[in-house]
Amino acid sequence: MRVWKGMKAGGVKRFLPLLAAAVLLLALALVYSSPHAQAQETGETTTVAASEQQVPGKADFESLVEECKAYEKKYGIMPEGTPYDRVVGPKALVIRIEGTIDNAMKDYLEQSIRRAESENAVLIVELNTPGGFVDAATEMVVTISKARVPVVGYVVEKWAESAGTMILMSTHIAAMQPGTIIGSVQPIAYDPTTGSYQPVLDSKIINPIVKTLCEHGATRGRNPEALVRFVLYNDNYGAEEALEKGVIDLIAQDRGELLRLLDGKVVRLPIGETVLIDTNGSYEVLEPDLRIRVLHSLSDPMLSGILLSIGALALLFSIASGNLPGIALGGFLLVLGLVGSGFSPNTAALILIVGGSILVFIELYTPGFGIIGGTGIAMLVFGVILLPIRGEGFAVSESYTETLLYTTYALGITMGGLTAFVVYKVVKARRAPQALWKLKGAVGEAVDDIPEGGTGFVLVEGEYWKAKAVTPVARGDKIVVVDKEGPYLVVKKAEEDAEKKGTLKR
Where is the NfeD1b N-terminal domain (predicted)? Predict the structure, then answer.
């Protein structure tokens, strides 16, 4: 058996460095090939040489502005007295988009719009963001245009820069809190390996962004020239200036004032309906669910970078050393890091569930490796959390969804507690003194004739041992274990102990 293990280990170790390098390269390829990772801070992470970037001249700017002016105001706030098809209200739903604009925020917006449509409520999107990913922002813009209820963008606290400005310009009604700013929509090329970035002015990237702003901003009555300057010259406006420039509709101190200003407004939606907003000042805040929170946290650039680095290194060294628990933990961290870098959360959920099931199965047949079972349970829990069970295409009710989630959490906690108990017992057993020393003083029987100082076999507690005799022992004699030397038990005849005990008593 030892020879087979040695041959197997020797053969595999030749290929371990190559295998580890291949896994690391695959991980890096997934990071850089994911669409989410290719668009940082409203710009595609595209390798563009500095010599190829040309600062747009006056002719280019004027040309883009003229194209944008061709989009007439069709949607947004209409003049008083405009006929309307239906009334939306009196309820308003409020969501808050903070931090990086990512796929999690996109899902959050989509869920909230569906909820607002089902309740015939106005949706207020509070924005406090420095920007984010252009693909997520673009999808959010399109989602707003397809909404069957008015979507109001409201910049609060600090800012709605970059991707946040794109989203604000696409809302049916745009509002700002005094002291907030918007602008700087020019994309950047971001290098995750060095943390550096440079502005991107390639027309293949700039023009689609300008077109998006014009298509979804100018048609709401936003100033075409200001929209183009947002992208080409990174203009920034405060609330008062933004209202003067004609890129927002309202300035409101708080939610209460915003609701009062919205009441009675007639809004034409891109879907072709004209609606009247009727609100009595009541609203409900929609908090993101657990899946959205986890995805948004993982999308933090610092956290995803740390998870990728630790996961890749742990996987690399664990494969090289043949450490199965390290491979499991490294793979788990790597998948989480990939999700934060833009890898599909749906695919990641499937990987985590399958991988977690395999690890739990391995744990059942390899007691003592608590980290394998713990990692497997964590992967199962995260896999279920990341499943899009509330998205379109899943014909399940909310009650069923909640029951499934609670069942999964309960199972995870139970299995985690069981694994922790097993690990505790294993550690306790390993730290305990060796039970072998309890054989000292045990009584057995000699299997062979063993001369003084010689060796032979004895039977002690149902097991055969090779023993050294300190007194002559005949086959069948009762013996007593007095010590252990390496693989040998040190024994003597039991009668001598009895005689000595009798002498002491006399």
Answer: 93-189
